[in-house]
Amino acid sequence: MKIAFIGAGSMAEAILKGILNKEACSPQNLWVTNRQAQARLESLREQYAVQITYDLQALLHNADMVILAVKPKNAEEILQQLSPYLTKQMFIVSVMAGISIESISTNLKNDYAVARVMPNTSASVGKSATAITFNEFVSQEQQQLAQTIFKAIGSTVIVEENKLDAITALSGSGPAYFYYIVEAMEKAAEQLGIEKDMARQLIIQTMNGAIHMLQETGKEAAELRDNVTSPGGTTEAGLKVLQEQEVAKTFANCILAAEKQSKKLAALSHEQIK
Ligand SMILES: NC(=O)C1=CN([C@@H]2O[C@H](COP(=O)(O)OP(=O)(O)OC[C@H]3O[C@@H](n4cnc5c(N)ncnc54)[C@H](O)[C@@H]3O)[C@@H](O)[C@H]2O)C=CC1
Ligand SMILES: O=C(O)[C@@H]1CCC=N1
C-alpha cells in the first residue's frame, strides 16, 4: 500500500510517525512533499526513511491513499495542482480543518472517494482522538483502510460530516487547551518556588493520574472533582477562584470560538472554490 502526503508540517509528521511506530505501512511506501522547504523534507527522510519528492507524478503514481495535510488556505491551490495526477481508484483523505467534502469534490471535478478526518497532534505518540467521515464513493475496503491507518495513531470514531466543526474545536484543537493549562500551572509553580523539572514531573503525573481515573472509574468528572475537594480545604479555596472568574464559561467560549472559526474556514474555502 502506498500513501502520499501532501504537506509536510506538524500534522503530516505526527501521522507518519504514528503509522511507522505501529508498522502500519513501510517507509518505502510513504511519500511526502511540501511547498518548497526542501531542508524540512530532507530532515523527514533522514529521521523516518520516507520517500520525498517534488515530482507530483512520481508522488502520486499508484498511490492508494492521498493525505491532504496543507493549511486550509492552501486547499484550492493544492486541489488544482493535484487534479491532473489523480485517478479514480485513489482514496483522498483530508485532514484540513473546515474544508468540506463538497468543496474538495467540486474542485477535483470528479467523483473521488473522499474522507474528511480530524486527528490531533497526539498522533505522533499513538494517542490521537480521530474523527472520520466518508463520502458515498468510499468503498468498504477503503473505509477499513482508513480505520487501520488512523487506529495506528490512536482511537477513531466515525461521524456525520456536520459534526466535524464541533469535533475540530473539541479534540482537534484540544491538546492546545491542555498545554495551556500546563503552562499556567508551571508558571504558578515557579511563583511558589518549585524547581522547574520537578514541577513538570508533578504536573504531568497529576494529569496522567486524573486521565486514568476518568478512564478506569467511569465516574463523572464532577464526582471525581468532589472527591478531591475537602470542605474548608485547599482545593475548595482554589476552585472558588476559578468559579469567581467564570473559567468554565470562558472555556466553553473558547471551544465555541474554535467551532465558529472552523465554520468560517469552510465558508472561505467555498468562496474560493466556487
Ligand atoms: N496541527 C494540528 O494540530 C492539526 C492540524 N490539522 C490540519 O492539518 C493541516 C496541516 O496543519 P499543520 O501540519 O499544522 O500545518 P503546517 O503549516 O505545519 O504544514 C503545512 C504544510 O503544507 C505545505 N504546503 C503548503 N502549500 C503546499 C502546496 N501547494 N504543495 C505542497 N505542500 C504545500 C507546507 O509546505 C507545509 O509542509 C491543516 O489543514 C490543519 O487544519 C488537523 C488536525 C490537527
Ligand atoms: O488550529 C487549527 O486550525 C488546526 C485544526 C485543529 C488543530 N489545529
UniProtKB/TrEMBL annotation:
It comes from the Bacteria. Its EC number is 1.5.1.2. The keyword NADP applies. It is found in: Cytoplasm. Residues 161-265 form the Pyrroline-5-carboxylate reductase dimerisation domain. InterPro entries: 6-PGluconate_DH-like_C_sf (IPR008927), NAD(P)-bd_dom_sf (IPR036291), P5C_Rdtase_cat_N (IPR028939), P5CR-like_CS (IPR053790), P5CR_dimer (IPR029036), Pyrroline-COOH_reductase (IPR000304). Pathway: Amino-acid biosynthesis; L-proline biosynthesis; L-proline from L-glutamate 5-semialdehyde: step 1/1. Pfam families: F420_oxidored (PF03807), P5CR_dimer (PF14748). One of its GO terms (biological process) is L-proline biosynthetic process. It is an enzyme of class 1 (oxidoreductase). Residues 2-98 form the Pyrroline-5-carboxylate reductase catalytic N-terminal domain. This is Pyrroline-5-carboxylate reductase. It comes from Lederbergia galactosidilytica. The lineage of its organism: Bacteria, Bacillati, Bacillota, Bacilli, Bacillales. The gene is proC.
